[in-house]
Design brief:
The chain contains 14 helices and 21 strands. The protein is of the alpha+beta class.
């Protein structure tokens, strides 16, 4: 059973401080997200890791993919928010057999650990953690193989639900709840009849990131093995799941000849995040992201395309509702291909929608998911009730991570290389203060073409591709 901890009051000095004079209301939403997240640092007496981040959903259960997405914002204040530390409650329970009273809801939730471990390393530069999860304990390889060997109907002793993921020659069977998109119209409700594009892409992404991590720690045999696994799955995605006419990756029918099942959802962007798309394919997907009849517009990233027959104006959970994890994933897919302007526009529209909902709807808070048509929370599966409030939880990745990475534009921070890559595009005074990466602490604030920078260690700042060598101390750049 989860329990509240005697936490001290939240202190803003623990976290980076955004500067965004053109949209000060987004800075307010940013701080609200951190404050709510602090209330979801919980404990459990027999958990391998306590305290841990609570997903804001159940008091007796933990979820893999909720926890993975929470790390995307916890990494900006890792000393206070135990994001990646919470992975131990999955690693040790699932792969080492350590018992705990908390149950894991869906063991075959999206396998995102390797992606998140790599992203966390980018900000911290802590290669010792990579060595532990790949070389010493092999948690990432073991989890990859766990998904590969999963059989429908299996129910491990630590699990709430039976598993539905199962590998077949052309891809993976799965169902809506383990997939995370609970009542998605994919397969037109016949989940048994399709192979799911996202699980194939997620395994490609996992293999790709294991290979990258192995390269960092000098494990060349592991690197070669998992690079081949990633390439094999990316090739299959393009062979069977890409539709050239529509410019989209789709699920396919499980039965040969594996016809496309043409339901557009943000899941179509998982192959792009996994690096399967060519530059030309990426541009086709970008056009879907910006099309207001599909995923674009003032309220972007609905969970099913707006022109789909099952799109529901109130949201109806995954039948139109806007969810922060899939919105974040798809935005990162655009960023992987250098489409930062599009990523920034969509992120700003999404955060503006979240803020409008915060202002217009009571209680004034952050929600589990959002209406795709008006400033209010999404409805639940019955299209009548409203989704969960105070959901930070993974919804904090919008006001925190997307604000820092996409709206403010600090899209790549590499502690090991000592680099920050900044897509500087906003007007007015904007930037970030107290950004920690590795042992470096920096402030970067622009006002027009003048940029004030302070740092405790030297590093390289790339502003729209132009390198500036930052020295310890304070300096003024013109860019």
């Amino acid at each position: 059973m989860k329990k509240a901890l005697p936490l001290e009051s939240f202190d803003r000095s623990w976290c980076p401080e955004p500067v965004i004079d053109s949209h000060p209301e987004l800075a307010g939403l940013y701080w609200k997200a951190w404050e709510l997240a602090w209330l979801h640092v919980k404990g459990c007496d027999d958990a391998p890791q306590s305290p841990f981040m609570d997903e804001a959903f159940s008091n007796t259960t933990i979820w893999i993919w909720d926890t993975c997405f929470m790390v995307h914002f916890c990494k900006y204040a890792p000393q206070r928010f135990p994001g990646i530390q919470s992975f131990e409650n999955f690693y040790q329970t699932m792969h080492d057999g350590r018992p705990m009273s908390l149950k894991i809801q869906h063991p075959d939730n999206p396998p995102l650990f390797a992606w998140i471990e790599y992203e966390y390393y980018q900000l911290t530069g802590d290669a010792s953690r990579l060595a532990r999860v790949v070389r010493d304990q092999r948690y990432l390889q073991r989890h990859f193989e766990f998904i590969e060997s999963s059989k429908r109907g299996m129910k491990p002793p630590y699990a709430v639900c039976e598993m539905t993921a199962q590998r077949e020659p052309a891809g993976y069977r799965w169902t809506g709840c383990p997939n995370g998109m609970d009542n998605t119209p994919r397969g037109r409700d016949d989940y048994e009849s399709i192979l799911w594009v996202d699980l194939l892409a997620q395994q490609a992404l996992a293999a790709d990131r294991v290979a990258a991590i192995a390269g960092i720690i000098g494990e060349t045999a592991i690197q070669k093995d998992f690079a081949a696994k990633a390439d094999e799955r990316r090739a299959l995605l393009n062979q069977l799941y890409w539709d050239e006419t529509d410019g989209c990756y789709y699920d396919i029918e499980a039965k040969a000849p594996h016809a496309k099942v043409k339901v557009k959802t943000p899941a179509s962007f998982w192959p792009m995040l996994a690096g399967a798309a060519s530059p030309a394919q990426a541009k086709r997907l970008e056009s879907l992201a910006t099309n207001p009849k599909v995923f674009g517009g003032e309220m972007p990233w609905p969970s099913v395309s707006r022109d789909d027959q099952d799109f529901t104006p109130g949201g109806k959970y995954w039948r139109g509702g806007i969810w922060l994890p899939t919105a974040y994933m798809a935005t990162k897919a655009l960023a992987r291909y250098g489409l930062h302007e599009t990523a920034a526009t969509l992120a700003l529209n999404l955060l503006t929608h979240m803020r409008s909902t915060f202002d217009a709807y009571e209680p004034h808070t952050i929600w589990e998911c959002y209406s795709p048509t008006q400033p209010r929370p999404s409805t639940t599966k019955d299209d009548k009730e409203i989704c969960r409030k105070d959901f930070c939880g993974w919804s904090a990745i919008g006001p925190i991570s997307m604000l820092i990475e996409d709206v403010l534009g600090f899209h790549r921070v590499d502690a090991a290389k000592g680099e920050i890559h900044w897509h500087k595009h906003l007007a007015g005074r904007h930037g970030i203060k107290r950004l920690h990466f590795g042992d470096t602490l920096t402030d970067i604030v622009a006002d027009g073409d003048k940029v004030e920078v302070s740092a405790n260690h030297p590093y390289a700042l790339f502003v729209n591709g132009v390198r500036f060598d930052i020295e310890a101390g304070r300096q003024t750049l013109h860019c």
